[in-house]
Amino acid sequence: MIVGVIIMVQNMIYEMSRKSQIVKDILSKKLEFISDPRNRYISYNHAMDLQTKYYDGKAEGKIEGKIEGKIEGKIEGKDEEREKQRQKMHDVVVENFILKYDGDTSFLENLTLDDYNNIIVMMLSNSSEESIKAYVIKAYVESANN
Asked: Global pTM?
């Protein structure tokens, strides 16, 4: 029994010394590589190349980000402009509806710009209040389905 334990301990010591020898060999090779001036120059150039690639990529990313931001800003600006136009058209439709039909205008809320344009055309062509309400109901149903 004791002999088995001794053999096991000897094997562990052997493995540890073998692994430590491998580590020593690796470290000595790295030390040799670093101590050679030519290799230090190569390592320095490699590090500079990596650093250059990093900063070039970072700059390229910033440029792409700025371009994407400008595009998104233009899209948002167009959306805001379209919303302003829709609100102005809403106000015009409500004003003219009150003048022409003198009725409730709550059903004229939240329509699209095209719907407001069509309602103006309907009012100019002397359509009845009921036909305008029917058009608005149809527009709500179509927008709900889409």
From this structure: 0.48
Average pLDDT for 115-144: 87
Q: Average of pLDDT values for 31-52?
A: 71
109: closest CA among 72, 140, 64, 68? 140
Mean pLDDT of 32-55: 72
Residue 101 CB: number of other CB atoms within 10 A?
A: 15
DSSP state of 126: T
Residue closest to 106 by CA, chosen among 140, 83, 146 = 140
Tokens of 50: 């990596």
Write the CA distances from 74 to 22, 60, 64, 68, 69, integer angstroms. 62, 21, 15, 10, 9
Q: Is 100 helix (H, G, I), strand (E, B) or coil?
A: helix
